[in-house]
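Recall that a protein's primary structure is simply its ordered list of amino acids. Everything else, from secondary elements to tertiary packing, is in principle encoded there. The following example makes that idea concrete.
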Amino acid sequence: MRQQIFQFVRATGTTARADITRALQISAGSATTQTADLIAEGLLREVSQTERDPEPERGLGRGRPRVALEIVPETAHVIGIKLTATKHTAVLCDFAGDILATMTIPTQNTRRTPQQLLIEIITLIERLLAAAKMKPSDIKAVGLGMPGIVDHGTGQIKWTSLLADTDVDLRSGFAAYFDAPLYLDNDTNMLTLFELWFGTGRDKTDFAVVTIETGVGMGMVMNNRLYRGSHGMGLELGHTKVQLDGALCQCGLRGCLEAYIGEYALTREAETVLDVGHTDVRSQEELLDMLFTEAQAGHKLAESIFKRAGRYLSMGLSNVVQIFDPPLIILSGARVQYHSLYAEEVFANMQSLTLSKGRAPCDVQIHRWDDDIWAHGAAAAGLSALTDTIVGGLEVQHT
């Protein structure tokens, strides 16, 4: 129960005990006892409404100010990291989940050895701590999200486009450099945690997140919990097959959804349509921006690339609705605007491909998040683990 109370306070920022009793449907006495323990342990603190709100609501009178509860942010600090092919981003968060500092470093767009990736990660952390004027010993957990297939239970990286090797144990190598537990997961799961903890998902018990960047990812929340599958490696929407013997995917197989709508797939088409060769120095982002600009200007071939990608996206989203029946799909990514060009058409096609008779149509929202938001989700993974240890590990039974 104390964990539920603590998580509720974190989700709301500040809340009164009366709000806790109503939201969690517990007695006022239980709420008072549990919150008193959390306050005594230095995890929660009381704050008056006038301290938090300089203009309290009219009609409260001149009596005793309402007392609210909030998390003590200095209890612990965590780092969240988002890794990509061309840059890595990290955020430093307090125990309340608020971002205190951010850092981004550019990287070479190449497949690395595990040791090279570790050096990049440690360099990123060192620069972040230097900017925040903090020491490594101040950090109690590190969450790390990366593209690919990650075994959440063991932390083993089965496959990622960032590494030349497969079945990599990054945790052991990280422990030799940094004395804090490392929590690894697929980056889309980390973004889904952000939506669950800090975003639109706070008001939903069930929802899906579909991400379109270099690849295509998916996260799913069921009954307020992140669903990963029996081995922690499920929901690989980008590697579901949409065309037998189709386009070559970066995973090595053919016909995967992301081979038609991922950024690298659009880049491949852009090189032909824009008459740009492999020796051109333009980055993937520049090529995609050029292609997008041409499509907006009415370039027929450029338009056709996005429209075909949109049809495949409609198919993928329809399959998500048909299998999981979520009330909400959040479509996200740093450059998701490439697909928003024909969003209405995409969503209409999604509905037409779905057996939707008798059910409310699935709501689809587009969230254009930058990498610091993904890193914030990775920090949430570290905060979740710390909460289990610090709050759950101190569970007190009251009679």
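Residues 300-324 form the longest helix (25 residues). The radius of gyration is 23 Å.
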